[in-house]
Amino acid sequence: MQRGAARGLREQPYQIYSASNIWFPGHIHRAYEVIRVVRGEARAVLNGEEYRLTVGECLAVFPLETHSYVVDEQSKIAVYLFSPDYLPEFERRVSERIPLSHRLSGEGVVFPDRHADPLAIRGGFCLLGAALLERLTYRPRTGGRSDPSLLDEILLFVERNYDGDCGLTDLAGALNYDHTYLSKFFRRRTGMPYHEYVARFRVGRAVYLLTEGDRSVGEIAFAVGFRSIRTFNRAFQVLFHTTPNAYRRAGRTE
Question: Distance between CA atoms of 99 and 132, rounded to whole angstroms?
Fold first, then answer.
């Protein structure tokens, strides 16, 4: 049941959440993502290029683009994700194009409200998609979306399997590589062990569940793939420097 709950989160067409005091390591997914600075500033790396964003600025991440971001405890970001299937007209119009720069101003942009009616949320994402079309400058994509590299394949494996069997042995079996080679390769390319990346990815996914609904911390821990509440709490504190319950309370009082 807990595993199914996590799959339901991944399969729903959109996510909206806020975060502060977080370092989210480089990751990749097949959704569109817009990161907006609500307070303070944020630093992001997208496809190897660094962006320093201030209040009101946004970063648009397109499918299969590796990205990471850092937000200090005085700052706050809002994150909007949606699948290509959620806005098929937007996907049709941008799938063969690449933004020249992923930075845009959020001034005057209507962003979806996660507390609104689902129809209003969809309308908000439509307006956000229209803003991406209007405010970003594009060039034609040559040869379609590139095939994923080995690092991309590893990151996609985690994105698809973080709620279940996601260990290094599982990864090696799925990609048909020696697990020792993958371990050394991943540390060399990312600067962190594979198991640490998986823990950070799971905690990042838990943020959404903490800000939506009333599931207990234990239910959320198991839903994102942790085997114990203690391990989840420890990993959460490493990333956010607070407990999951304290993070939830702070988010609901803002």
Answer: 10
- pLDDT tens digits for range 53-64: 999 999 999 988
All residue ranges of the chain with pLDDT < 50 are 1-9
- Sorted by where each starts, the structural domains of the chain and their CATH numbers stand as 29-140 (2.60.120), 150-253 (1.10.10.60)
Beta-strand pair 14-19/41-46 = unpaired
Q: How far apart are CA 94 and CA 84, in angstroms?
A: 10
Give pLDDT, residue 38. 96
At residue 141, the 3 state secondary structure works out as coil
Distance CA 147, CA 45 (A): 20
**Residue 60 and residue 32 in contact, taking contact as beta carbons nearer than 8 Å:** yes
User: Residue 253, Cβ neighbours under 10 Å: how many?
Assistant: 6
Using the CB atoms, write b or e for 199-223: b if 16+ within 10 Å.
bbbbbbbbbbbbbeeeeebebbbbb
| pTM for the predicted model, two decimal places | 0.76
Q: Please enumerate in sequence order all residues whose Cβ is within 8 A of that of 166, keeping only pairs 6 or more positions apart, or say none.
A: 157, 158, 198, 225
Q: Residues 147-162: pLDDT tens digits?
A: 568 888 898 899 889 9
User: Which residues are within 8 A (CB) of 78 and not within 5 positions of it... i.e. 6 or more apart?
Assistant: 16, 17, 18, 35, 36, 38, 111
Specify which residues 41 forms β-bridges with. Answer: 54
